[in-house]
User: Which sequence fits this backbone?
């Protein structure tokens, strides 16, 4: 059976560089024979996490649906933009809500079962790498996730992709190949 891999970008911006990276990773994994779900976070309308919403109304339905997506895949690739050397507010909010679901195996099913792979694209020189370290901390230290060592960061993202959506510069390309090989190895 092909491995099931969830791929999404933590940006809703039109022309998002991280969406480009997610598209590329999804396409390459499909080429390698995986069954890929290219998820659009824009389809999951979530309020900003607020304890009163949770106490009064429970966890919103879109978060339950995301939990189902997380737990039903062998691996999850997140293309995560860097905001102030950290994760995007969108991603922090998604992870907060999904972590609040005790049903259907709770955190262990959503975060402990799939393997996580991380990438980031940024117009800046660090390629979002600092945000990836923050995301790794969150996933590993609090959410109990296994995060692959190999990550991909794409600096100067505005000039990093060619017309076919492939990476141009040698170093991000090498990082991408290492990360794809690692995902394939652990999900085989
Ligand atoms: C509030 C804010 C903070 C940002 N902080 C960083 C940062 O710390 N490092 C960085 O490389 N880029 C930073 N950026 C730039 C984003 O990486 C850039 O807007 C990027 O294109 C967002 O990802 P996207 O193209 O997938 O939407 C920041 C942008 C905003 C709006």
Assistant:
């Amino acid at each position: 059976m092909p491995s099931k891999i969830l791929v999404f970008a933590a940006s809703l911006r039109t022309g998002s560089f991280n969406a480009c990276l997610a598209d590329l990773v999804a396409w390459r994994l499909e080429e390698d024979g995986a069954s890929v779900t290219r998820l659009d976070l824009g389809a999951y309308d979530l309020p900003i996490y607020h304890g009163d919403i949770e106490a009064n109304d429970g966890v919103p339905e879109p978060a339950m649906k995301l939990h189902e997506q997380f737990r039903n895949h062998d691996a999850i690739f997140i293309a995560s933009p860097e905001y102030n050397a950290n994760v995007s507010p969108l991603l922090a909010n998604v992870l907060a809500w999904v972590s609040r679901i005790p049903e259907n195996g709770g955190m262990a099913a959503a975060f402990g079962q799939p393997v996580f792979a991380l990438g980031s694209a940024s117009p800046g020189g660090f390629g979002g790498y600092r945000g990836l370290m923050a995301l790794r901390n969150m996933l590993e230290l609090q959410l109990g996730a296994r995060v692959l060592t190999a990550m991909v960061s794409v600096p100067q993202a505005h000039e990093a992709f060619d017309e076919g959506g492939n990476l141009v510069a040698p170093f991000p390309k090498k990082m991408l190949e290492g990360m794809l090989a690692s995902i394939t190895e652990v999900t085989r």
The beta strands are 4-9, 35-39, 75-79, 115-121, 146-147, 152-154. The longest strand covers residues 115-121. Helices lie at 17-31, 51-57, 61-71, 89-98, 106-112, 129-142, 170-187.
